[in-house]
Amino acid sequence: MAFHPYHLREHATMTADTLPSPSVSSPLKVQCRVIAALILREVHTLYGNTKLGYLWAVIQTAFGIGVFWAFRELMGAHAPHGTGMAVFLLCGFIPWYIFSDTVNRCMKAASANQALLTFPQVTELDLMLGRLVVVWGTQVLSAGIILSVAAACGQAVELRDPASLTATLFFAPLLGLGLGLIFASLARFWPTLDKLIPMCLRILFLASGVFFYVSELPGRLANILLLNPVAQLIEWQRYGFSASSAAPAYNIVYISAWCATSLSIGLLLERYARRRGL
């Protein structure tokens, strides 16, 4: 069934129409219904037109991991600290995909959904939150399937610190949302950012330790790369699966500060740009 903007209005206003009198929680319920409708629309748009459907997202993630896995096997490289190669690469790709896909999709949220923004119940932040949930859910589901297949194939899959995994899956989308809000707002004033940011993300991919341990590089180089919060998120998630007792190369306060600061600045810029009518 095709989605139409009218469905969003009907879905979002259902609560307000059925309640006998307004309540304090009514606006929140309406926004939750709006975001839920946007999530369904996003899933349908991304995966509803292909025969593979949602499985295509798993294939994309598995392909990226498979390419680097094959490359490392040809080079005779092995995953360090007692982790399996699938787990090692997955702990790099999943935080990266959650972060980078959230940034990219937040930047395009408004331009791809101009018709929906004509409804008063729908805001740009709603569009971004809907896309964030889809990106997060897609990558977590993909990771679960790939880990299950890896374990069935005899790969070592052992989670030593569940809190590390939970925390990184919490902070990665928040960081992506914060920077996505900042870049999307600034792109209204400087449209060139729409093309510049994806290029910068490609460079950042190589400097984030997706397929190597940043902490194992020479001290000075490692310290520079660890200024990148994404690199620290990846190190943190790998620490959760690692069998090593080596000191972790991440700083929880630093990562939290990046998330809180980017979200605060992003929300302020989004409101400023909205008031300017840009």
UniProtKB/TrEMBL annotation:
One of its GO biological process terms is: lipopolysaccharide transport
* Top-level taxon in the UniProt lineage: Bacteria
Q: Which UniProt keywords apply?
A: Cell membrane, Membrane, Transmembrane, Transmembrane helix, Transport
Transmembrane spans? 53-71, 83-99, 133-157, 169-190, 251-269
The residues covered by the ABC-2 type transporter transmembrane domain are 35-240
**Similarity-based family:** Belongs to the ABC-2 integral membrane protein family.
Name it: ABC-2 type transporter
| Organism per entry | Nitratidesulfovibrio vulgaris (strain DP4)
